[in-house]
Write a structure and sequence with these properties.
single chain; about 190 residues; alpha+beta; Immunoglobulin-like; 3 domains; four-stranded antiparallel beta sheet; 11 strands; elongated
């Protein structure tokens, strides 16, 4: 990487020039790089990461077209000490939500029983947590989408009815980027 100094012809230029040179401007300074060469072989994990990053850049471009969302990302960029709103949007997309804990200690399969889900996403919000109760054949007995917890990352599901058959619990956590994580609780709980 080379920094361009005192050259009014090149100062502020960005993009590819010729076959091998790439100019980038960052924080008011212009840098020149040799064009990166794509590796000849990629591992499955590299392909997956490249695909996710491609989707992240598409997501960030869409967010930058909405003035309200762009302003939100500028605020997030300041808090996270990132260079701009676009980078903050990519950062949000690249970070996946995480289901930290599913507490079923207060759940016996009776109406009013609770399942407490702890979910998080580093530096960003989780959009929704969904709890699904299924019988042994996979038929949905009860499900509820819990929107935006106000309990500091805790999401509470309360059963609306009692279950008289064996069942399993599925928890799905989504962020606003569309990233999703699932957890199925085993073994199947039996109510007698």
């Amino acid at each position: 990487m080379a920094q361009v100094r005192n050259n009014t012809f090149i100062d502020g230029i960005s993009g590819k020039v010729g076959r091998d040179l790439v100019f980038k401007t960052w924080n008011g300074k212009t840098f020149v790089y040799l064009k990166a060469k794509k590796p000849k072989t990629q591992s499955p994990k590299q392909k997956e990461n490249r695909g996710k990053f491609k989707k992240a850049t598409w997501f960030a471009k869409m967010m930058m077209e909405d003035p309200v969302k762009k302003a939100e990302y500028w605020e997030k960029a300041k808090k996270l000490k990132l260079p701009n709103a676009y980078t903050a949007a990519i950062t949000e997309y690249m970070r996946s939500p995480e289901i930290v804990d599913v507490d079923t200690s207060q759940f016996q399969g009776k109406a009013g029983d609770e399942i407490k889900v702890t979910a998080r996403k580093k530096d960003f919000e989780i959009e929704m947590v969904e709890v699904i109760i299924e019988d042994v054949e996979g038929k949905v007995i009860e499900e509820e989408k819990l929107i935006r917890s106000s309990f500091g990352g805790k999401w509470i599901f309360r059963a609306k009815e009692s279950f008289k058959e064996d069942h399993s619990i599925h928890v799905i956590c989504r962020d606003r980027c569309g990233n999703m994580v699932k957890r199925k609780l085993l073994p199947i709980l039996t109510i007698r």
